[in-house]
Amino acid sequence: MKKVSIVVLLTLLGFTINAQHVFDKGSLMFNAGIGAPYNYGFIPTINFSGDYGVIPTGDVGVVSFGGLAEIQFADYDWYYYYGAYSGSQVKPIFYLGPRASWHLLVFESSEFDVYAGVGFGIKFYGNYNYNSSKNDVEYDPKVGGYGEGFVGGRWMFKDNLGLFAELGGGAGSVFRFGLTFATGNK
After folding, report:
1. What is the largest CA-CA distance in the chain?
2. How far is the C-alpha of 86 from the C-alpha of 18, rounded, in Å?
3. E strand or H helix that includes residue 6
4. Could you give the CA distance from residue 161 to residue 61 in angstroms, rounded to a whole number?
5. What are phi and psi of 185, to 5 degrees?
6. Which residues on adjacent β-strands are paired with residue 42?
């Protein structure tokens, strides 16, 4: 009889508590972290991103829109073909663009958020070129595009503070991690 009473009590309690999720429509979260570079050396990237919950998809999840800003100080080796001049430089690469994520409501928890997404944007970078007439290396700035795909998760250990990690590729990092700041939840 005690087991039946406990099951009934837990069932009623489960119906009276609203499911709490870390990320819902209207949620606004920002990430700040470092990353393992996708290419060009081993110097960590510095990244900032944000998500705003816009489109609920029923009990399955929430679609968010946001953006990414990431800077990478790439280690770049250059050589003059005849061996007269060679060296190594650190060149900055800056990534900036929008992205969209789908936050899955797989956890009925106020601590965990799991998401996947895509993004694209503009990449500002440059190349070092050897100028034989000046016997010097010159920096040639360039602009290009990038696309990225990623999966990630958040663990909110306080109401508005947590940790995030993302795995993917296409922008500056293949792996990102750091702090998450939440505002505007619910």
Report:
1. 94
2. 64
3. helix 2-16
4. 21
5. -70, 135
6. none
Query: How far are the Cα atoms of 3, 20, 61, 86, 149 from residue 113, in angstroms, in the given order?
Result: 33, 11, 10, 48, 17
What token pair was written down for 170?
Answer: 């296409």
- All residues at 6 or more sequence positions from 84 whose CB lies less than 8 Å from its CB, including other chains: none
- 39-70 burial, b at 16+ Cβ within 10 Å, e below that, comes to ebeeebbbbebbbebeeeeeeebbbbebebeb
Q: CA-CA distances (angstroms) from residue 96 to 46, 79, 92, 116, 147? A: 12, 30, 13, 19, 11
Closest to 56 (Cα-Cα) out of 80, 28, 24, 96: 24
Give residue 44's Cα distance to chain centre.
Answer: 14
The pairing of beta strand 45-56 with beta strand 61-79: antiparallel
pTM of the model: 0.76
Residue 14 DSSP SS3: helix
Q: In the chain, what are the helix, strand and coil shares in percent, each to the nearest 5?
A: 10, 65, 25
How high is the mean pLDDT in each 10-residue block of the chain (186 residues)? 43 42 89 87 89 91 95 70 59 92 84 94 81 68 92 92 93 92 72
